Amino acid sequence: MMTAGETGNIFKFYMPGVGTPFPEVNDPDYSTMGLVGAVKGEDRINWALLRIIDVLMFSATEKWLTTAESRRSLKEMSTSWNRLWFGGSHNRYEEFTRLLNGLAPKLMPMLIQPEPGKPKLTGIKLYVYGFSRGAVAARTFVRWLSELLPPPAAEGEKPPQCLQTGGMQLPVSVEFLGLLDTVASVGVAHVVPVADGHMSWADGTMELPDDETYGGLIKKCVHLVSGHEQRLCFPLDSVRRANGKYPPCATEVVYPGMHSDIGGGYPPGDQGKANGENDSLLLSQVVLNDLYSASFQAGAPLKVPVDTLPVDLKKDAWRAMHPDLIKQFDTDIPLVNRFNAWRELTLGQTTPKTFDPEAASHYEPPAAGGSLETVIAEQMAWITAWRIDRYARGSMLKTPFYQRAKNTEALPAARKAAEVIRDKEQEKVLSARQNQIANQPPDRMDELVLQPGVKILTQRWIKPSCSTRRRSSERITTTVTVSRITWRSWCWIPCCSR
């Protein structure tokens, strides 16, 4: 989290993905239940909602919510059928409203007439991002946020798009919603006949707030999806409405590659591919640059190279992107050429010989000739033909990527040795936690944030096939912007459906 002193009034928060450590919500270890069933997802999303309260509290009092206070609120907000049979929606509204009303006396002067030298609080702007089940969490976050808005003043009217406290209204908007290949494997996945992975907090939360009631709440939504992922266990949730139309704010774009070629997760050299010294040959670099560009165009206060900063902003050191960070956006020439070859061959697009930088900064992907399903079916035909040819003629065994692939932790002895090392590291963590508990004052035990656990080993294969992949870390990031105060918590190309 950036402090206000570093970034003015811009804040960012990162919510670790399900199955990975998030000690603040009492989920300190990598867990199979989290990775498989998305357990503890509801707490992560409620934690993100509480960050809105947290930043409002800091802006008004220069004090943050304590870990203990956040945890108590999480408990109150969670789905619990023991509490008079009320579900999470009711509980969230009650607890969030209680906290907001408690801040009303402090917020009122900032909303009406702040003290000399202090900014007026005129609104909250959010920039929300997520990949995979992190994208599911991001969509759920926005859905639940809409449920926290006050009810309409009269029947038939729209609810005001604001947070209401003490008779005053604070406008709120989602300026940008950046989604990468939304896959809702929550609860039992689609491999079981009666299940589709939309249980618990993913049940009924994937549709963006409806335009008639909440039109304008989301200013811009971009959903970047994989054209070649095997969807049996990774079914995609489009942002398209049930009536077949897209929300006015939304654009959905198809990219080449698998799930982790969209949101990242393959390291250089994995499966013998992208064998560079850095990330510049990874297919996910294209999506990284496009998402950053789209978010920046939507007003997200992101870092940029220092030589591109306007003179009046150079004083804000946090806005300048460090040279090492700039390198993480590199795309090598072979990657660019192959990406453009994919566009030309499978989509029939042309690649300009030259590209005006100004035009490139406002690039819009061309509309697809059919539905999302049609585009993906065509892409699956291409990759299926490639696979048939690869196996029928045995050409895979001669490909450079196959020859370069390493047997990391694949053989039983090597894997066993790696497991022993991992277990020893986890034992050190458990010992450190015991010391944390022993040294924590008894009356402050609910403030204790345990040391996160060590990553569990995932299955590695002796030789790769196109369908093998590792689930990368799924994440949701939130940005809050308040007025002159801006708070924030954390590009497309080829083919889009509108």
UniProtKB/TrEMBL annotation:
Residues 169-272 form the T6SS Phospholipase effector Tle1-like catalytic domain. The keyword Lipoprotein applies. The lineage of its organism: Bacteria, Pseudomonadati, Pseudomonadota, Gammaproteobacteria, Enterobacterales. Keywords: Lipoprotein. It comes from the Bacteria. Residues 335-456 form the T6SS Phospholipase effector Tle1-like C-terminal domain. This is Lipoprotein.
